[in-house]
Amino acid sequence: AMLQMPDALVREGSIRTIEIVNTSVFALTYKLVSLRSGHSNRSTLPPFDISPIEAEIAAGATQTLTARFCADFASDNFFQLFEVSVPNQKTAHLILLRGRAWESAAYVLSPQHLLQTPEVLLTAPPQDLLAFPSADPTSGSLTISPLEIELVPGEDGVGTAIVTIGHIKSGDEGGGGGGGGKGAPKPGSLEFSVEGVTDDVTRRGFSVTPAKGTVEAGGAVELTVSFELRREAMKGSEQGIIAAFGVSQWAEAALKLVLKGGNPPPLDPERQLILKGYIASTAGR
């Protein structure tokens, strides 16, 4: 099973509990064995920790494990694969912990992030520490690439995808995991807006819902990005003529996602969104 740790700020981390159930009529002793991991911290401390790493579970009882994730640089490729080793077991029981660490409280997850499977993570190339972008926000080397989203219409003529905007609750804020007390600042909202959804973009079939809003600390909002194939509107247009000649193509719309707020605020408050809507050939129809 893959267990996603809560998204966390660099050096603050997150916690999650895991339950192991002994369905046997006998007491069993388990031991967690690390098989493989993704990125490691730059310090000597590992990004993941689980306790207790071994224990005896009474017949029919449940053992609760505490998993902790804390990274010292930003990356979405932290993972560690554990085997729950039990004497005389016939089938290996695996736990894959996954963690994402961010420099700012605001984060954006693409459809590709949400579709990552254990197989994708486990086949990732080995890390190259020399290729990592600098974590120093003043260095200017930390770059964020445009978010490209391909939308392929289904039988209903509409293609959709989900983009998630999250807002991490810092431990420096009241009620956070870092021990904020009465004097800690009240966590503020993260504001987002999608710019560039003009009448022309809408007429070509693209839409984003909601186009603006707020995300409370500790929460997340899902944006539904859509492309509706409008054959009637395409008639006589350049794209309609090309499709009629038997050539499939992609319609494109360049939008901008703007983020404001959060503690700490975004290092780069603007993210380019490139929406691509698939237009299939209409030849022979």
Automatic annotation (TrEMBL):
Residues 169-190 are annotated as: Disordered. Residues 173-183 have a biased composition (Gly residues). InterPro entries: Ig-like_fold (IPR013783). This is Uncharacterized protein.
